[in-house]
Amino acid sequence: MGKATWSTPLLFQSKRLCFSLLYLFTVLFLALYSSLSSTKCIFRSSPFDPIQTPLFFYPHTYGEHKYAIPTLRSSCVSPVFFSDYWLVLKEIQDFCLNSSYSPLVLRYQRKRSGSFAGNFSTQKRLSYFDHSDDKAEVPCGFMNEFPINGSDRFIMRSCKDVVVVSAIFGDHDKIRQPKGLGSKTLENVCFFMFIDDITLRGLHAHNILLDETEENKMGVWRIIRVKGKLPYKNQAMNGVIPKYLVHRLFPNAKFSIWVDAKIQLTVDPLMLIHSLIILEDVDMAISKHPYYIHTLEEAMATARWRKWADVESLKTQMETYCENGLRPWTPEKLPYTTDVPDSALILRKHGVESNLFSCLLFNELEAFNPRDQLAFAFVRDRMNPKVKMNIFEVEVFEQIVVEYRHNLKHILGSFTEVPKAKRARSDASVNGSSWKCENYLLEMWGESHD
Predict the structure, then answer these.
(1) Phi/psi of residue 192, nearest 5 degrees
(2) pLDDT in tens, 140-192
(3) Which residue in 253, 334, 414, 450 is a FRET match for 105, CA 20 to 30 A apart?
(4) Which DSSP letter does residue 289 get?
(5) What pLDDT is stored for residue 198 in this prediction?
């Protein structure tokens, strides 16, 4: 029997069927891609040859990936596009090598004080907001000791390009490794994690970092131990030292990314710096708050959920800000799209504007409390020169990090009670029958008749 052969009509019909199926699959693929693109907030070119090996082997008892917070948002208002990894790497290397910074530099006060940042009165702090005189010195912490050893300081000064910084005080979080790093990222990005003695004891309990004679590394993170007596009794306040004074701890870095220990980066930091800072030509990038846009909304939530125990001091803080010009967010504040950020992730290009903002904000945190969202808009709106910010959408934040809950167990006395007494008070007497933020609330609710 001869071999079976395709007749010409049958061959033609088969080819037509194949082309029809190919066309159908193409249409379905494009439709699916379009649907997915409408819900995703980032379009990325993944790093070529990404790091595949585990960055650190955790003991099973540590549980670094427990209790992730689910995200429910699916829509996207403003997507972020990432360029090719190798292009990004070269552009950032060239920028750090050839960038001609302004001859203007921020000068810092170096006097000694009983408090870490001077604990100035309201009017004294406000006097530094207008930095039109570039020779004027600005208070910016370190008027008291931040106890880290000399070898760590040397390594920190040697970081000259991009630094990623995080901190855990009071054993409040887990140390998590970033994901999605490109093969050359660790050669161009420094990762530093600040911890206190309580956190170190927690690591020892899990048989981590037992040999302190060796360089303290956990995966990508170089561990910086802040030992002995810390500047503040409140652990959260100690945590905002590396969060907002990163430019002082790493004076030679050109860019920085602050990462709250409760979140894990899932996108290469070079890609983030390039897309959120360089392409946007801004000094800082930070996410919107998922719920609030007005400062008083955040203040009321802080009191309601007991995020700060001294409610009277919160009221005094808001009265001080309202009395000195704080107003609700309106479109007149554009290009700032909100007054309340989610400050778990902060990207900065180090320069006069972003450094000044960080110094002024830190001074407010020492004066009142470490709830940085409460002072954010007040500092941003009053300072001169203005800081250029990219305030990106919440959906973008949820695509570039995974957020986890804080440690749920009280380990080794790690949680410290929030102190109620605060030093700063409004310089003007508080009239018990009239709240200075009354006009603010009327404007916020759209009921002002001024």
Answers:
(1) -130, 130
(2) 999 999 999 999 999 999 999 999 999 999 999 999 999 999 999 999 999 99
(3) 334
(4) P
(5) 94
Site of tokens 């590394």: 217
- Dist CA 429 CA 144 (whole Å): 31
Q: Do 175 and 218 form a contact (C-beta atoms < 8 A)? A: yes
- For residue 195, what are the β-bridge partners? 168, 225
**Peptide bond between residue 385 and the one before it cis (omega within 30 degrees of 0):** yes
Q: How many CB atoms lie within 10 A of CB 249?
A: 24
390: Cβ contacts below 8 Å, ≥ 6 apart: 276, 277, 280, 282, 284, 285, 286
Residues constituting the chain: 450
CB 424 within 8 A of CB 315: no
Nearest CA among 266, 255, 263, 329 for reference residue 41: 266
Kindly state the tokens that stand for 77: 């208002």
**DSSP 3-state assignment of 34?**
helix
Q: Look at the block and give the residue holding tokens 């890609």.
A: 271
Q: For 286-308, how does the pLDDT look when each residue is reduced to its tens digit (9 = 90+)? A: 999 999 999 999 999 999 999 99
By the 10 Å C-beta count (0-12 exposed, 13-18 middle, 19+ buried), 244 is classed as buried
> Is the preceding peptide bond at 335 cis, omega within 30 degrees of 0?
yes
For 198, the enclosing helix (H) or strand (E) is helix 197-205
Structural contact between residues 160 and 252, judged by C-beta atoms closer than 8 angstroms: yes
- For tokens 């209790």, what's the residue? 67
DSSP annotation of 416 reads: -
Residue with tokens 């060239």: 94
CA distance linking residue 227 with residue 199, whole number of Å: 11
Answer whether 183's CB lies under 8 Å from 277's CB.
no
Instruction: Determine the Cα–Cα distance for residues 116 and 363; give it in Å rounded to an integer.
Output: 9
Q: Name the residue among 290, 296, 263, 247 with its Cα closest to residue 392.
A: 290
Is residue 421 within 8 A of residue 311, CB to CB? The reply is no
Residue 56: is it exposed, middle or buried by C-beta count within 10 angstroms (0-12/13-18/19+)? Answer: middle
DSSP conformational letter for 276: I
Q: SS3 for 80?
A: strand
Which tokens in the block code for residue 331?
A: 């479109």
